[in-house]
Amino acid sequence: MKKIRNILLFTIIIGSLAFFFLPSYLSVASVDEPIEIIIPKGASMNYVSDLLYEKGVIKSKLWFKYQAKSAEVDRHIKPGTYILSPNIKMEEIFDLLIKGNPIPPVVLTIPEGFTIYQIAQRVESIGLGTAEAFLEACSDYFKGQDFSFDTSKLYFNLEGYLYPNTYHFTANNTPKDVVHKLAKTMEEALTPEYRKRAEELGLSIHEVLTIASLIEREAYHDEEKTAISGVIYNRLKKNMLLQIDATVIYGIGEGKEHITRVLYAHLESDNPFNTYKISSLPPGPIAAPSKTSIHAALYPSEHNYLYYVLGEKGHVFSKTYQEHQKNVDNYRKLINKKNNN
Q1: Considering the domain 304-341, what is its CATH architecture?
Q2: Minimal CB count within 10 Å: which of 37, 164, 307, 310?
Q3: What is the DSSP letter of 222?
Q4: pTM, whole model, 2 decimals?
Q5: Is 83 helix (H, G, I), strand (E, B) or coil?
């Protein structure tokens, strides 16, 4: 009986301590450095609590939502980009969310198919650092990672490894932050399923991104990407030259200048990206591939096409050189007709 009373007494003491100390413990942030969060328009309290928990700001989603509901914060969440200071209290977070005093976001949009050099110029244009600083940050990031491919023939080692998307930063972010975010997003896009599929095909991730970048720059629309991918694989199996103009353009400009017209002289240039001269993939990606292009690189259409040329509503595919020449003639007639109208 005495033992039971002792257990009850101990339980009451522990409960009392928890009652007095647990709320204060749960109501203070657990991070020791400033944390940036972005609250989109229309975000629910569930979204906010999940985000804060993932960032390590709050210790309990349940407690946070309980306190937010009690303070009626869940009805007054203001969207925006917020910087939460170390050891910020829950009440202070509530005040921020209600008052809506966010740091204006800096929106960075990277179109699919952009090169690193173009990304650097875009970063500079929105005030997140100079293009030179961004390229230097790319180089530093590359050195800090465990990449194993040959870089001796590349113009930019991280080309193709920055994911094209729309990102939200603040004026406090640096080129290093931008590179880190874009590179990590690409890592996430390369899902375990994709990595397993690459192994099944006997390809490295570097080769997958290279093929994906070719598809990105060649495709007229998403629906034809797997077909173009199939042509690339078919040509590689037959040891045929890929003869992709986009690689010639990239090589001539060394990843920087972008020529608008490919001349016969360009096709004879000696550079590692000229697929009219090399009978293999180029040494690396030529642009930032989208998720659809990565998917197409890993899951090409099975067909016997070896050629394609632009038509009226996309590319026209053919199995023989004779068929291809007819399609080329039709394309030229189409261009002449448009120019004469």
Answers
A1: 2-Layer Sandwich (3.30)
A2: 310
A3: G
A4: 0.76
A5: strand
